[in-house]
Amino acid sequence: MPKRYVYEVLNRFRQKEASFLAPTDGRLGPGTYIDISHESLIWNWSKLIGWIDEERQRNKLYLGIIEREERYQPGLGPFLTGLDLSDAVAWRESHLHIGAWAAHYVSESKLNQVLAFISEGERNKAATEQQEAETRNRELLQKEKELRQQKRLFRVAAIFFAVLLGFALVIYSLYLREEEATASAKRAQLLRQKAEGVRSGKPSITKP
Description:
Elements: H1 3-12, E1 21-22, E2 35-36, H2 39-43, H3 46-71, H4 82-93, H5 98-102, H6 108-200
Antiparallel strand pairs: 1-2
């Protein structure tokens, strides 16, 4: 909206017959502060009360950001984080004419510092999220590596136990063959002794 239309409306309510805006004299300009001269009008104007509350909240948030910015050390912090950063970004994005608004409270140079402070918070958030993502990826890769190592160890252990079992079976088989051969030799010896006893007519002496 052109400024001249705004000035025209304001001047209507600065005239003596309907004067409830101040200042009542002089020309209006970009730096002119407009005030309501009748307090009762303020408290009976519900829409205005809502605007005042909104302005109070924006002002409180802005001054809080300034306080945080004054404690900030470039590259070291503390940065805006979490909900504080979200509120600050929303505050910045909601002000189309933020320079003119902020000039009512602090200098333009301070506003630039605050905006830079918010941007630093956004960059820090992005860097932190990237670091966290990289950390998660490293942890995932490490877990996958450990899992592959465990699978290799399991395969090696399975092969080792299979070989060990096979070796044990071979030893046991040889042991059974040896036992069978010993038993067969004893049986053959007994048969020879019996045969010799029959031929000589003498009973064979069988050792227990």
